[in-house]
Design goal:
Layout (H helix, E strand, L loop, with lengths): L6 E5 L3 H25 L9 H13 L4 E5 L4 E5 L8 E10 L3 E7 L3 E6 L7 H10 L8
Helix pairs in contact: 1-2
Amino acid sequence: MRRTPPVVVQIEPLPAVQAIVALVAALTAGGLALWAISHDPRTWPALLLVPAAAAWAWREARARPRRLRWDGQAWWLADAGQGDADEKDVSLAVLVDLDASLLLLARPGPCWLALARHQEPAQWGALRATLFAAPAGQAAP
């Protein structure tokens, strides 16, 4: 059996993912506020929490820059700028594959990793091939 070649990908924060998370939080908070107002109009100040919920979600959705590496046998994850000694052995599961973007779940953690083709265009094909061709023992349950 042929081994998959080594792959190294730098993962940077994606503002589009942050925006989607903030939008979902704002819609959720707005829906809850409107529900409360429909039961008691005096609860209108709850609408003031909608921007706070969106801002909180934006801040919480920001991902740290990381480095994801496949060495031919295992996946390794580290914060960007750290050496190989600080890498953690992880197993990956592909949760969403939209061709130009991926959402991965790294375990142990859980750690959500959002990747886009424009971040690493030269490595994108190799990354996708490795994700789906890596030995079965490397997939998250």
